[in-house]
Amino acid sequence: MADAPAPPPREPLVEAAASFAGDPDSFERLWTPHRLAYITGERKPADPHDVAQCPFCRAPGLDDAEGLVVHRGETAFVVLNLFPYNPGHLLVCPYRHVSSYVDLGAEELAEFTALTRAAVLSLQAASNPAGFNLGMNQGGVAGAGIAAHLHQHVVPRWEGDANFLPVVARTKALPELLEDTRQRLVAAWTTVAPA
User: Fold this and answer.
1) In this predicted structure, what is the pLDDT of residue 16?
2) What pLDDT does residue 120 have?
3) Between the CA of residue 28 and those of 24, 58, 164, 165, what are the distances in Å?
4) Which of 100, 101, 71 lies closest to 189 in space, CA to CA?
5) Using 50, 70 and 90 to split pLDDT, how confident is the model at 85?
6) What is this structure's pTM?
7) How far apart are CA 77 and CA 86, in angstroms?
8) What is the pLDDT of residue 190?
9) Of all residues in the chain, what percent are helix, strand and coil, respectively (each to 5)?
10) What is the pLDDT of residue 153?
11) How far is it, in rounded angstroms, from Cα 137 to Cα 153?
12) Per-residue pLDDT for 135 more than 60?
């Protein structure tokens, strides 16, 4: 008995997203298109040593809202993370384009430390987190997204703030717009942090 010929391969069925985007189903979709720029590296400097491409060198030249600046010091400043892990995720950055903590001068180091403390106090006043992650990733191999410009992360944490979304969907749900968070932190900064 001869084997029956195999059926011709079928083209995969591909539906245009617009044809079902409004149809109800069992999924709850959380659209976070702003994350695509981070995932694809769209805003990452092509040359990390070119200060014109560095987001931490550009931010102080913008107005506070556009640059997400929360506070400006003499040698360092505080800015919201454009791609935050949690609402209120702050970065403390020296103005000078240096990559290593040990490259900071004495005045820079003192202000960098004072601004990290002030960031914690301001976040406590503004949003009452249960704890914090403080840290610096030194070098790309250590996880620094912008390795050429030193920055200290100040990440507020709450009980239950982590769920399955970052693990399975590489998505973080943030309940507040960055500008709303920035305004709340600026107001708190003026009440609890030194000028």
Assistant:
1) 58
2) 97
3) 9, 37, 14, 12
4) 71
5) confident
6) 0.71
7) 20
8) 83
9) 35, 15, 55
10) 95
11) 9
12) yes
Give me the catalytic one of 71, 89, 151, 153. 151
8 Å CB contact between 79 and 69 = yes
Beta strands 69-72; 90-94: pairing state: unpaired
**CB of 105 closer than 8 Å to CB of 99:** no
Residue range 100-111: average pLDDT?
97
Non-local (6+) Cβ contacts of 147 within 8 A are 48, 99, 137, 138, 139, 140
Kindly give the interhelix angle for 106-127 and 178-192, rounded to the nearest 10 degrees: 110
The alpha carbon of residue 72 and the mean position of all alpha carbons in its chain are separated, in whole angstroms, by 19
CA distances, 132 to each of 90, 123, 157, 161, 189 (Å): 11, 9, 5, 12, 17
Annotation says 149 is catalytic: no
Cβ(69)–Cβ(59) below 8 Å: yes
Largest CA-CA distance found in the chain, in angstroms, rounded: 91
| Superfamily of 33-39+46-192 according to CATH | HIT-like (3.30.428.10)
Integer Cα distance of 151 and 154 in angstroms = 10
Residue count (the chain): 195
The model's pLDDT over 24-80, given as tens digits with 9 standing for 90+, comes to 555 555 556 665 665 666 667 777 677 888 999 999 999 999 999 999 999 999 999
The dihedral formed by the CA atoms of 156, 160, 165 and 167, expressed in degrees to the nearest 10: 80
